[in-house]
Amino acid sequence: MVRIWLVKPNIPDDWDFSGLELIGGKRTFGNWIDRLSKSNFIKLINVDESDDGSDFLNKLSENLSCTTESYASTIQVYDHPQYKIECSYRSDLNFQNSKDFNYFSTVVNIESVNIFGSVVFFKTDGKKLINLELEEIGAQIANFYYLQTFKLSNGKFEEIGMINFEPEINRMLTGYKVKKFGDWMVFSDDPKSNLSTLTQSNNEIKNFNNLIWLKIKTHIGDIHKALESTEYEKNKDGDMRGIYMDLDPEFIISVFF
């Protein structure tokens, strides 16, 4: 069976992030994912591995409570070079006809859509449906507190966690040189890093050392505007958390090497 997930309507007060923290310079979930699995607004859905698409569509229709007058839309949540995390929702639900706001889905979708009702999250590799783990779903909102990225050191990628809040990141990277490539930024405090010779593709890993990558979410401002249009916005100070997206070595290598 292939795992996909139903996220029912929720608000910020439904979320308890205790256990989510930085330990030893890495983002750790502690028992947070286990507690998340027991919450009353997240449910595992299994789709037949040999499905021709009909089982998946039936599960969508059933769990989104679709009717003959409903409209379902699919939007992206995380666009990785090797896979995509997406979600499907009832696009006919809005402020006027529903009180079932879906805070989580509104925060994590990259198209800045205010979402109401239940939402189904799934993962694809090309056109193939593949397992989506609960930790991958949790990471989408955990990123607004703690960022996961990597540092290239002596030919290996080492995981780094940071508070995903611009002043904290600026403080952590004070004194580092930076090279920008569109929405990518590469940092180093090593004069022998060869940062100055780095290009946006076709580099040789062996030629570089002590580089740290960050990638800006180009949609983050729109997400905050979407939340500000609801009564649930907690970020009244406009501190713009969650500016940078999570990265892994495969993502970095696919772009730069």
Description:
The protein contains 7 helices and 13 strands. With 257 residues, it is of the alpha+beta class. The protein has 2 domains: 2-142, no CATH class; 146-256, no CATH class. Strand 11 (177-181) and strand 12 form a beta hairpin. The radius of gyration is 20 Å and the shape is globular. It starts with a strand and ends with a helix.
Q: What is the overall silhouette?
A: globular
Q: Give the count of structural domains.
A: 2
Number of strands: 13
The share of residues in extended strands comes to 25-35%
Main sheet record: 6 strands, antiparallel
**SSE string, helices as H and strands as E:** EEEHEHEEHEEHEEHEEEHH
- Uncertain spans: none
Look at the structure and give the mean pLDDT.
90
Rg from Cα: 20 Å
Give short descriptive properties of this protein.
single chain, 257 residues, alpha+beta, 2 domains, six-stranded antiparallel β-sheet, five-stranded antiparallel β-sheet, 7 helices, globular
Q: Could you provide a short overview of the structure?
A:
This protein is α+β, with helices and mostly antiparallel strands and 257 residues long. Helices cover 21% and strands 30% of the residues. Strands 1, 4, 5, 6, 7 and 8 form a six-stranded antiparallel β-sheet that branches.
